[in-house]
Amino acid sequence: MVQIKRLNSTDSSFNQALQQLLAFENAMDESIDTTVAQILSEIKKRGDEALIEFTNRFDHVNVTSMTELELTQDNLQQSLSSLSIAQRQALEHAAERIKTYHEKQVAASWHYQESDNTILGQKVTPLDRVGLYVPGGKASYPSSVLMNAIPAKVAGVQELIMVVPTPNGEKSDLVLAAAAISQVDRVFTVGGAQAVAALAYGTKTIQQVDKIVGPGNAYVAAAKRRVFGIVGIDMVAGPSEILVICDGKTNPDWIAMDLFSQAEHDEMAQSILLSPDAGFLNQVAQSIDKQIDDMPRKNVIRVSLENRGALIQVQDLDEACAIANRISPEHLELSVDNPDKCLEKIRHAGAIFMGRHTCEALGDYCAGPNHVLPTSRTARFSSPLGVYDFQKRSSLIQVSEQGATKLGKIASILANGEGLSAHARSAEYRFKVE
Amino acid sequence: MVQIKRLNSTDSSFNQALQQLLAFENAMDESIDTTVAQILSEIKKRGDEALIEFTNRFDHVNVTSMTELELTQDNLQQSLSSLSIAQRQALEHAAERIKTYHEKQVAASWHYQESDNTILGQKVTPLDRVGLYVPGGKASYPSSVLMNAIPAKVAGVQELIMVVPTPNGEKSDLVLAAAAISQVDRVFTVGGAQAVAALAYGTKTIQQVDKIVGPGNAYVAAAKRRVFGIVGIDMVAGPSEILVICDGKTNPDWIAMDLFSQAEHDEMAQSILLSPDAGFLNQVAQSIDKQIDDMPRKNVIRVSLENRGALIQVQDLDEACAIANRISPEHLELSVDNPDKCLEKIRHAGAIFMGRHTCEALGDYCAGPNHVLPTSRTARFSSPLGVYDFQKRSSLIQVSEQGATKLGKIASILANGEGLSAHARSAEYRFKVE
């Protein structure tokens, strides 16, 4: 039997229990951080030479030049050709849907003109060059390549450089095929902090990028934190989470499997179900026990559900929505008759899956929206990865001669109030001579 | 005479000289970081009690309760009433223009429906609660209150909590008046790392916020870096910079004063002028010498111009634009006949000031666009502070019964390819039974 926590929102200890359930400290390991600092410094100083050394050491390969660490477009096409037709079509179909959805996110430049001909606006431009980190080994996910690369390309990023370590020389055809499909420009088989450093500082072979995105292990996360400011980075993600709100009328096997699909990611993943129907919660608990032994990743699922999962009885769907806002989950599934009514009350969630037929797995792969989502309550202030992460804005200000007098008078008073005389004088010089 | 650097883009050493000129390492002071870690930990553990202790110690005050550390809306209105009519009107006029401009940045939710009735979109919501850090003492800028508070309010943030230290109990009426005008909800006279900690963790009196914005000293910056992830933060800014491109036909006194207006901020501020006209560069150099002794902040201006400023002769305006992209300046002034032609070539800049009448000072105070801008080449990947920093997005996915079969087949293939069986099964459960 899976010992999953059972809570009831009417218990006096509920608030505290919920807080404990959600507690997760993304503590930084100081020894990892020290190692990473050394790696960054070596790459900054010695570039390609250090990159080759670290790659040979950490990935157990034996290369002597950067040429051996770059894959050609031909290599990527070979990986694509090696796939089964079904896999290739699935990847291509997913890519197409992701592209269509993200095209709606493209922001355009805008401006407006005032009556005195002063023009104000914003110019929107893509980033020049982006680095995409892709983990090697077991956590090698082609869907992650699509989700990170396609928004960058839709934004208009000219050069997308992917890094993916190949420990012991092992490559993933699925990952490289995904790179081909999403039109990645260059691929280097390097990883870890050394790959992040190469992208952030640039080497003779790898040009400095403007932003680094993509998931990685603790070394990669520590390296990204350290190079932030020199380049942009995406969020450093915590463990994945799902919160399901169900009115009790969905097949309990479906809901149990939805909880499994989050729990199978890793032992720290979190799956929580809220329902006003106590009988339904029992049915889901039974279904968990019934189905778990069928799952190839049952050991991971069990640890995740027992340590971090919960089935929570709530008073009604309104209260469920209020608790959802407190949890601010990465994934929120509204498995209810009228999901629109719940949606109105939801303020914080990474992605919202509406209706009984919308399981999270569809969004993870191919519905269109991004699967890179804010974790650990950061949906309170951050958004799914999107085209907006690969575009930036410049303010536009073109003040007319008449406007310079009008605005200059205000600026002069405020600048003098702040003791900044050169600001005031610079504005006053532009006053129109009457 | 001000010894400002003179460079020429045709010199063989130019690239290296430019790189040296721009070099700026925002090195973290380890002793500051250690102190900050202790302060954060005390506030996290002991809340208001620790906040009162640190405030008494660092701000040389003597309070015994949080009530003494909160200003009422009446207090803010009193500060507003104490201003001269000219100052009040200038602030109100600036606030109005900033509001009008930022209203154009409000993003709206969107969705689209596919032929099988699947609905995809994004729901856009404001952050619930935002903390605004305002420095006390000499760097106490009312314009900064407007620029940070107004976009948050335009976004729809329900509660805006401002913290501003009052060393020795000294308050700035201009700053508090700006808070009144921008409808700040609560104001606490606390500062430093302890104020950041109170906002990030919450105390009995100060509720936890979702994001902290606003400038501060090295302690505030270190604290913001450390609480990032628990709450959102804005960029940690480097020294302010201006790059002026001039065709040589603007009054050299105007351009010299524009360089001063940046240099007067602090000794690390950077002012650079690019012009194809060698004679004009000489005229500006002469004007600098002629005007500097008139400036109240002449000592700061001199150090800034001599250590970090430069007058650079370029071959033509095209080359000037190419160099501007390399510099990716915070402020870019296009003091030329046809600024639109230059604009087309500019990819990276925080704010672009177009035409001879548009000095930076107008944008700093009242043109409308934000004066919180990306510094130190971060305009390559980041944007001015805006309404978009106070809104976040949730993906919306509502898959129809028919769509669940179509998308489920793709998801199932891809999930199995990644070894995630529960993902596959969860999708397969939703297949339509024919």
From TrEMBL, chains A, B:
InterPro entries: Ald_DH/histidinol_DH, Histidinol_DH_CS, Histidinol_DH_monofunct, Hstdl_DH. One of its GO terms (cellular component) is cytosol. Pathway: Amino-acid biosynthesis; L-histidine biosynthesis; L-histidine from 5-phospho-alpha-D-ribose 1-diphosphate: step 9/9. Transmembrane segments: none annotated. Keywords: Amino-acid biosynthesis, Histidine biosynthesis, Metal-binding, NAD, Oxidoreductase, Zinc. Binds 1 zinc ion per subunit. Zn(2+) binds at residues 262, 265, 364, 423. The lineage of its organism: Bacteria, Pseudomonadati, Pseudomonadota, Betaproteobacteria, Nitrosomonadales. Its EC number is 1.1.1.23. GO terms for molecular function: histidinol dehydrogenase activity; NAD binding; zinc ion binding. NAD(+) binds at residues 133, 194, 217. Pfam families: Histidinol_dh (PF00815). Catalyzes the sequential NAD-dependent oxidations of L-histidinol to L-histidinaldehyde and then to L-histidine. Signal peptide: none annotated. This is Histidinol dehydrogenase. It catalyses: L-histidinol + 2 NAD(+) + H2O = L-histidine + 2 NADH + 3 H(+). It comes from the Bacteria. It comes from Nitrosomonas aestuarii. The keyword Transmembrane helix does not apply.
